[in-house]
């Protein structure tokens, strides 16, 4: 994957990808806001494609993100909470599996940051809250302490 960014004027930049281009207008929308939008959009595409591939459909999809950044530079994200809200023709178990598959396997942007960011999520499916403030299985961020782990056969 290749991307080229060029300065256009004042605080406007054009990003060119292999598939197209778009303008980044700082500080109207900051690069970190684009980044967080990319994280959410990555999971949103999974939430449309996975159900479709299994013969289901998702409607009224909305994903809200609340990111917490470190106070000191480089001000990395340290926590991220995602609120999924959607309707579908599937049961709650299947709906929950779609979210987990996106978070744990398919969403490249979330999987890029999950080792350094504590990630949690909530799911509202067909108007019912089915998961609340669940932590991602492998998204422990920098606070994770695995303790001593002995190797098999050691």
Output the CATH topology: GMP Synthetase, Chain A, domain 3
Low-confidence stretches: 141-147, 149-154
Number of domains: 1
How many individual helices?
3
Shape: globular
- Total strands: the figure is 7
Question: Helical proportion?
Answer: 25-40%
Model description:
With 154 residues, this protein is α+β, with helices and mostly antiparallel strands. The protein has one domain: GMP Synthetase, Chain A, domain 3 (2-Layer Sandwich), CATH 3.30.300. The protein has 3 helices and 7 strands; from the N terminus they run βββαββααββ. It has helices at 31-53, 92-106, 108-113; strands spanning 4-9, 12-16, 21-25, 58-69, 77-88, 118-125, 128-140. The strands form 2 sheets. Strands 4-5-6-7 form a 4-stranded mixed β-sheet, covered by helices on one side. The protein has a 3-stranded antiparallel β-sheet with strand order 1-2-3, with no helix packed on it. The N and C termini lie far apart (42 Å). The model is unreliable at 141-147 and 149-154 (pLDDT under 50).
Set down the secondary structure blueprint.
Layout: E1 4-9, E2 12-16, E3 21-25, H1 31-53, E4 58-69, E5 77-88, H2 92-106, H3 108-113, E6 118-125, E7 128-140
Parallel strand pairs: 5-6
Antiparallel strand pairs: 1-2, 2-3, 4-5, 6-7
